[in-house]
Amino acid sequence: MVGLLSGTSMDGIDLAAAELRLDGETIELRPLGEHTLDYPAALREDLLSALPPGVLDAAALCRLDTLVGRCFAEAARLGVDLAGGQADFVASLGQTIYHWVERGRALGTLQIGQPAWIAEATGLPVVSDLRTRDVAAAGHGAPLAGVLDSLWLGDGSGSGTQVAVNIGGIANIAVIGGGEPRAYDTGPGNALIDLAAQQRTGKPQDTDGALAASGSVNADLLAILLDDGYYRLPAPKSTGKEHFNAAHLDRALTDLGGPIGDGDLLATLTELTARTIADACRTEGAERVVVAGGGVHNPVLLAALRRQLDAPVLVSDDLGMPSDSKEALLTALLGFLTWNGLPGNTPGTTGASGPRILGSITPGATGLRLPEPATTQPRRLIMRSAATN
Question: Hey, which residues does 38 pair with through a beta bridge?
Answer without folding.
Answer: 12
